[in-house]
Amino acid sequence: MRSRQIRLSLVLLSLLCLTGCWDRTEINDLAFILTTAVDVEPDGKIRYSVLLPLPGNMGGASGGGGGTAGTKSYYIDSEVGTTFREAQARLQQRMSRRMFLAHRRTLLIGEDFAKLGIRDLFDTTPRSPESRMTIYMVVTKGKAYELLQATPQFERFPSEAIRELAKARTVININMKQIALALSSPGSDAVTVYMGVKESEKTSKNTKKSKEIELLGYTQFRDDKMTGVFENAEASGLAWLINMPVHATATVKIEDRYTITLSIFDSKSQIRAHTVRGKLRFDIRTEAKAKVTESLGMYDLSQTGKVQKVEAAMNRYIEQAMRKAIRKMIGNRTDSAQFGSYLWREHPRLWERKYASRWPAGMKDADFRIQVKSVLTETGLIYENVTKAERTR
Fold first, then answer.
1. 61, 210, 267, 271: which could form a disulfide with 288 (CB 3.0–4.6 Å)?
2. Is the pLDDT at 92 greater than 60, yes or no?
3. Which letter, b or e, does each residue of 64-81 get, where b requires 16 or more Cβ atoms within 10 Å of its Cβ?
4. pLDDT higher than 70, residue 271
């Protein structure tokens, strides 16, 4: 009984050492940053912009456009500074709540800023415990601040539309951590998603045009500076080269008469680097599946021979798309597909002795052998146009 009393007394005394909740932060004291945008001013200073929700104007569920009828459910503000944190600190001076970055999912970079170099962003972001390296880094056509002012009709906030586009299955999933690895690994260059603003078509005199956010492709980087853009088929070719299983749409011609649109999915690529008679060669093997989404010209896909013709046309399309991406890389002196990394891992001595100091210039003289094997797995619910009928005369 005495030992129990002693233990109970020690427990009660230990409670006196507890400090309590001395640093509590109420939710009403925080301003949740949904996205940030970085631009460069003509004098070289940094413009730092933020988008924050306004809890008082949000209310229940409503249509998109960010409350374009009058009361927006979000607030955009920006400030200029010599560094990112200096601009953020100036912005904080006119906010009654502390800016909180843990809920940020996208970081927008203006095109002019990206051309000067993005490496400094990888100092300011990781230093804060609230910032996440899994956020999507997006380069914008024109000013990043302008993308925040878009009025997408399907989402309450422009930041949500940007995030949904960046993580769509038709887009290469690229977060800030992956870009940092590409910038720091030998024989590789970074790529980012590239977006812009496009005005919707006006349907009548009484309707207003909305500013929709549009995916434009992927940006090329040489070291940490933007040098070009992958667009259209080049963008799909890049995705296949870096073994990203994105969903792509391709339109091919069969026998110069029939036009067929395909949805390509479940792609896989393997790249091997080696030398043949002293010449560098990359063997690229790609497999993909596809389904027919539209066929113009009454093409009967119930016949095996015709299905094989579609598969052959799809093979040519995929190969040509990858070669377009490779030519774009060689022309802009970038290695967005990380061919140099394959060479470094498989032949480290050859890499250090011959290519490390001048890569990606070595890609210009390399031989790229591409083999594509695609399979048409679906033709849809029909083999040919349902209005086709047998002609008796």
1. 267
2. yes
3. bbbbeeeebbbebebbeb
4. yes
